[in-house]
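The freezer alarm interrupted the setup, so I double-checked each line after restarting. Inputs confirmed:
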Amino acid sequence: MKRAGFTTVWLPIALLLPQLMIIAIFFYWPAAWAVQSSFYLQDPFGFGSTFVGVENYTDLMTNTEYGKVARFTLIYTALVTFFSLSIALLLAVKADKVIKGAKSYRTLLMWVYAIAPPVAGFLGLMFFDQRNGPMTEMFQTLGWDFRLGADYNSTATAMVIVAVWKQIPVNFIFFLSGLQSIPKSVREAALIDNRSASGRFWDVTFPLLAPTAFFLLIINITYALFDTFGIIDTLVRSEPGNNPVTLVYKVFVDGFRGNDLGGSSAQSVILMVLVLLLTVFQFRLIERRIHYT
Amino acid sequence: MTDITETHVTSPAPSRSTKRIRWSQVFDHTILCTGAFFMLFPVLLVLMTTSFEDADIVRNGLQFGFEGQMLENFDAAMFEAAGFSKAITGTRMLMNSLILGFGFAIGKIVISMMAAYAIVYFRLRFATFAFWIIFTTLLLPLEVRILPSYEAIQSLGLANTYSGLIIPLIASATGTFFFRQFFRSIPEELVEAARIDGAGPIKFFIDILVPLSRTMIAAIFIIMFVYGWNQYLWPTLITTDEGMFTLVRGIKQIVQVLSQTGAMIPEYGKALALSLIAMIPPVLIVIFFQSWFVKGLTESDK
Amino acid sequence: MAQVTLDRVRKTYPNGFEAVQPCSVKIPDGELVVLVGPSGCGKSTLLRMIAGLEDITDGALSIGTDVVNDKDPADRNIAMVFQNYALYPHMSVAKNMGYGLKNRGASKAEIDAKVQEAARILNLGDYLDRRPSQLSGGQRQRVAMGRAIVRDPELFLFDEPLSNLDAKLRNQMRIEIRALQQRLGVTSVYVTHDQVEAMTMADRIIVLNAGRVEQIGTPTEIYEYPASTFVAGFMGAPPMNLLTAQIFEGALKLNEDTVLPITAPAGMGHKVLVGLRPEDVRLGGDGSVLFNVEIVEELGANRLLHGKLGGQDFSLSVGKDEAARTGVQPITLPVARVHFFDPDRGTRI
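Predicted 3D structure, all chains:
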């Protein structure tokens, strides 16, 4: 609040009302609903539901299918985060260094941000096409019998590659702006103190970039967990079958296709807790971030 | 201690080192060009392929080169009725996408600006509480609460409407949080000067705060437009009526149609053209308003 | 034009912190009063209370004859110049100056005339169409002044208006503001932490410390008769020397070797603080008082000699023509210009 804020009472309430109403209807209510129905077992034919306590949760814990999905999600998230962050960092460091064409490079490396995940997935579908996709042909030349949609590892690889491709621009933008906000005097001081360029990068630039990197780490985990839904849905042609899927995708499949409301809600709640933990973690980092500046 | 004497600066840096620097520059440019190539090439290849005949594409997949079919394919994508009910054309989907993009971006900006203004500029006990209520929504992406949100829309009778498409997407705090940060960075003295100048809360908002936020509004508009345009899961659930499909939602349809093994040759050219049409508006906006977009993205920090 | 009266005006924050202790002042019509003190002393809070930007916890504030405690800032007929100028960045200079009038419902012609007049006074005529970002610091300062003038207020409020300017510009603007204020004859309250500004501009100075009024008086009174050690140390550069002396049979002893040739004030215990302005002390003398000079500071117009007198820190100031060197040398103390303070409470005796 500002020191000398206005003292009118009705106006701020009126200003807040639309936002609060939308949130109440489309946020708090659904969230509460999800928590509640995670403790119930829905009759598959729609005749009411029975309270089952934490059974939906214990079912999930013992369900091998869920374990498999969770394991894939973990690996998938780790790979997407690692590759999209490291490639973007490399590109950002180089883009920050060059003088000629810096602006063109920035444009060329960031525009993919605007492509929708399912559209990226569709491009992936063409590139990894079983019969004549260029990427499939490349893998086959290398001796891998790559079969999108039929082979678990093939599909997983395609998902990671498309997801990384789509995420590099965001990371690139943040890293570049992080690099550009390092004061010139600090770089000059480092230039005097350390003659090796890679030494300067790891001793000075990288630590100063660490807050950005931490922040991006969270962003990327969130991205891999949630925002890649469209990529996955497109790459498996909406028919998961035996293909790898992520936790969010399973919430969707169980809830809408399997009509397992209780189980799907329990999965939602688990994801909510996951996001909550990530956010708390992120706040800790933001606090640390302030110490730098 | 040495005496301080004037030293004569010798001629510019020796030219021997310039060659080494040049090599490292070549290396930098090579990496950047490779990166740019991998970003650009897939889309370029799809664009080229749209100039081929469907039969060609079916047989050989993505094509390198140019044929004469591009116009026909884009024309079919834009104007040919498609879908099971034959109720949807590319133009129709484009319009729906624009409505979603603009509706979402404008709605979000208006609502979150108002809320942020109330939180930052008024002495309201309730403000901190309201902020936390709004802020908590950052914790739960739509994907997590998709099922109950869907139920909510159904029971409100908003399925297959633009309101049902747009409003639930607005229910997150990103915009409010963003404007709150920005308002807090505006010097306090400005509101004090305005109060001495006799501006009440509404006048201050319209005369001073909104004009001051112009760049920020533009930046957040771009981000939100792209975000809205690119929505997939929510439109997929909420629009079953083909006349309501957006371009991005249409991708799902395309994939399903192409996957069907029928007697007819799948219309690959048209499908690829449609996927390009789905990219073009947000990509152009991001490219042309790049500096605003980057500023908005990096300064909001979520 | 109006006189301003503060009657036991007080500010306590919800957390219990007392920012301004009860303060009663009467500012006569047309005077420029400077609120001076170190940062955090409550001077800005007091000013903002007069402006109506901060609630008054207790007491009555009147501008003219009306008590204005509950009036909105816009209704108090005041104008304020802020430290960072608080110009509206998206408005031209002319719009910035005219905004207050526009909100009062003045006609376009009237606004125009007043803005032109203010621009003429402040030499801003060529800049009326520019944005604040296109102006230099000094010009922005003038626009802020102009915004205050066009309102034709009963009271000007200045919140450290010069602290964002460089030293040279600050001196120039100091004179301009003072001249303008005298010409317009508008009652003014001016907040600063700079004692030079306070001394040079004020008709009357209010020295604040930790939310409390230490002294109210004309610059001369404040300088010649500081009411406390705080005022003595705050006003004047270099600050007044404060020596702790033992009273021994009517004589003032700094240590075993140094006895000041000054009569101790009557009715004191065995200790007193002796205040001596550096510029009142002279070099040379009969050798009864010896000053050990350790450092000579060259200031051009004069020199400052720092060192020890009877084991305590001491400084004196000499003209540029006087010889100055380090080492022990005799000095003469100004018997007529000695200040005495209570060693426990710091008050003047």
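Quick read of the result. Residues 20-78 of chain B form one domain.
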